[in-house]
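A quick aside before the break. I want you to see a complete sequence-to-structure record at least once, exactly as it would be stored in a machine-readable document. Don't worry about memorizing anything.
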Amino acid sequence: MNTISNYCRFIGRLTEDPKMVEFDNTRLWTFTLAITEYRREKSGEKKKTTNFFDFEAWDSGGDAIGKHCSKGDIIDLVASARNNSWTDKNGNKRFATKFRVKEFKLFNSKPKEQFV
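That is the input. The structure line, written in tokens, reads:
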């Protein structure tokens, strides 16, 4: 049986430094990418739209992102989509899509301050 791969590619800017949570000898890194698109309206006016996507990276892959990437950096990601569902404290069913990082490439990095 053939399987369909669940991979998406994203290029965008980190909205903040990646955050790490450690539990049961596992590290989970989370971060958000801002991806801006431009298009022309029928009037010829240029319109800007920015979308925000949440990502997670586990263990050594996340460690590399945490070490080399920071707020404002442009990164290229290959990720798989994951649907999450839960019931909130008010009993409402909630849904969210997160993307699990498989590969990443840092396109540019702002100079980091040197500490003595």
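Two observations worth writing down. The mean pLDDT is 89. The CA atoms of residues 59 and 72 lie 23 Å apart. We'll return to this after the break.
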